[in-house]
Please model this.
Amino acid sequence: MKRKNLILISLSILFVTSCHKNSRFEIDTNQNRYTVKIHRFDRDLLSLNQKTMDKSLKKLYNDYPVFLPLFAYEIMDTTARDTSAVKSLVSKFLNDTAFTKSNRKALDTFNDISDIEKDVSDAYSYIHYYFPEVKLPELYFFVSGFNRSIIMNNTIIAIGTDFYLGSDYPAYLGLNYKYMTVNMKRECLTTDLVSATLFRIFRINSSQYRLLDNMLFRGKVLYLMSVFMPNEKSEKIIGYTPDQLKWSEGMEKQIWASIIDQKHLFSTDVMLIQKYINDAPFTAPISQDSPGRLGTWIGFQIVCSYMKHNPNVSLRDLMNDNNYQKMLEQSDYRP
Model:
């Protein structure tokens, strides 16, 4: 299979108690149910009968007429029409001793996914309730030998289960920096999947690319996450360790002061913005003791404050509002 740069989901969501436990937008997800069924391409691929490969592969084509071509293109660097190439690459992958152990681990780890489907259904019920016009994606699981963690198009979101085998899974040590493995565990898959869905639905206006715009856009999406997954524990939603969250909360005033004092808030420097919002071992403009993504975390705090001080603003109003300077002014944010 073609080796690509590892694409880890860096969409982990952030948390504060005052936001997360807000019941203002709570709904009864049983009465307003949107039921999710995850397609198990991972299991069906790994269970192919290699003694009857032609027949087994034909069934896989029939069972996944939409996803198999996407998988072939994105992961195997070929087209589904080239059946001989697909057969050769699948056979090679299934017999590659470098991945047989991780594939078996993925099947064991995700043998029963009823809890994941329930939690995603809960979150999707919220999305469908508040944004009924949105066509929610079909969901798939796949494995790729640590090649890709996510595949998306206009109708599909697929998650690589071999990227969620546990933060201390030995095979990850040589492939990723330690800070990247914190969320590579089963309990993080649901929040990653829901956040991927939200970031696909809502996009930042390309003409707005100041640090402030990026912070508050991401903060808006994270606010939705806190509403749509109200029962998640903070550490599962945040993507921080408990110590990282404690550090951020304890240093919130100093973080905000540092952003203001360094005159970074209205910067359009792409590299600087990335240092504040991208996953990293620390947020470089703030401190080497800090966790990464502090710009995103502060953006979430500002949006929480904005929604608290503007109780008439609906979730739709929030997501449609791209005037981030006004939002900051009306947030009464004072850490």
User: Anything to note?
Assistant: Residues 211-331 form one domain. The beta strands are 38-40, 138-142, 150-152, 156-160.
